[in-house]
């Protein structure tokens, strides 16, 4: 009887061991790049980290925070990080440069970027069309905040050369730049935008935190932050990529139901910029921008391609294969678990 029990136990154990081996994580220690982690644009990353979802998936993730999205992209290309939470548009731009970078889950369905003008310039800069000659603060040159304001200027008959762009960082430094009069206008994200509004320092010109605001600019959704990686890394480490995708998908589902107070309590206090109530207000202003399901549809991809082709005439939309910018297979498996 004892022998039969042992054999039965062994027969049950072998499939379990096989399942573990089949899903073994190839690279449990990862380095992930981001360009401005305290920004609400990247909130899902902070939540995944703080809620322990990376650890739950068997991952140890070291997060390197760079001055802007373009710098985290450079780190991925250079090999100093394994993955990036950054703007979807980078996958298109890199394909044009023969670099195969693919998103595996969408974190933000709207850019969440606001273009506003300093109260000192509100009388002369009343719309995007008045930005000619202005000093415009962005997180970093080449980042999504930089690209969006360029797009808006070109749509209003101007050239990006008609304004000066100044990298102001992603937190208190951006607020200080506006306060000190170092910039006339800003293209930025929450909580910086809500902080400036609360201080009476900012008049909003364009707001892509909401459905209505994004549709006014793009005519529909326009994907923002995603998790993207080199295709070579995806092929070599599919279980690792699956684990990352699982963690972010669980985060999106948590975020969908979380109260603003729960979100504020989860992030580091320094992200509040000294005011918890203001952080909650900023989250509420940006809440619509987060993806509820992690997917990117074809219309959204085309919208992003149009933005890039408008701001960079060297890119030929006909030569871009959008199906190679987003791999939804890992997301499908995450949803099925």
From TrEMBL:
InterPro entries: Solute-binding_3/MltF_N (IPR001638), SsuA/THI5 (IPR015168). It is found in: Periplasm. Pfam families: NMT1 (PF09084). Keywords: Signal. GO terms for cellular component: periplasmic space. GO terms for biological process: alkanesulfonate transmembrane transport. The keyword Signal applies. Belongs to the bacterial solute-binding protein SsuA/TauA family. The keyword Transcription regulation does not apply. Its main location: periplasm. Residues 1-22 form the signal peptide. Residues 29-252 form the Solute-binding protein family 3/N-terminal domain. This is NitT/TauT family transport system substrate-binding protein. Coiled coil: none annotated. It comes from the Bacteria.
């Amino acid at each position: 009887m004892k022998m039969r029990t042992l054999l039965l136990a062994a027969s049950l154990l072998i499939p379990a061991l096989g399942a573990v081996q089949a899903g073994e994580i190839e690279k449990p220690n990862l380095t992930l790049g981001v360009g401005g982690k305290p920004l609400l644009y990247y909130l899902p990353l902070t939540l995944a980290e703080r809620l322990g979802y990376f650890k739950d998936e068997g991952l140890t993730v070291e997060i390197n925070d760079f001055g802007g999205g373009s710098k985290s992209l450079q780190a991925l290309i250079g090999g100093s990080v394994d993955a990036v939470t950054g703007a979807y548009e980078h996958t298109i731009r890199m394909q044009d440069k023969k670099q195969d970078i693919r998103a595996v889950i969408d974190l933000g369905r709207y850019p969440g970027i606001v273009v506003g003008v300093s109260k000192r310039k509100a009388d002369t800069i009343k719309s995007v069309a008045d930005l000619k000659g202005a000093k415009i603060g962005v997180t970093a040159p080449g980042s999504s905040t930089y690209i969006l304001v360029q797009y808006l200027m070109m749509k209003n008959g101007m050239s990006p050369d008609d304004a000066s762009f100044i990298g102001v960082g992603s937190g208190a430094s951006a607020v200080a730049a506006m306060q000190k009069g170092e910039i006339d206008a800003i293209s930025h994200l929450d909580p910086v935008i809500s902080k400036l509004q609360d201080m009476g320092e900012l008049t909003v010109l364009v707001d892509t935190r909401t459905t209505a605001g994004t549709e006014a600019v793009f005519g529909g959704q326009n994907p923002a932050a995603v998790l993207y990686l080199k295709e070579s890394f995806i092929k070599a480490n599919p279980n690792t990529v699956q684990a990352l995708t699982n963690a972010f998908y669980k985060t999106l589902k948590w975020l969908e139901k979380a109260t603003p107070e729960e979100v504020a309590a989860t992030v580091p206090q320094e992200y509040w910029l000294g005011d918890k109530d203001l952080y909650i207000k900023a989250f509420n202003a940006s809440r619509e921008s987060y993806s509820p399901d992690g997917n990117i549809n074809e219309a959204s991809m085309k919208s992003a391609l149009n933005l890039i082709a408008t701001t960079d005439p060297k890119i030929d939309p006909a030569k871009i294969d959008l199906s190679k910018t987003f791999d939804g297979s890992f997301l499908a498996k995450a949803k099925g678990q």
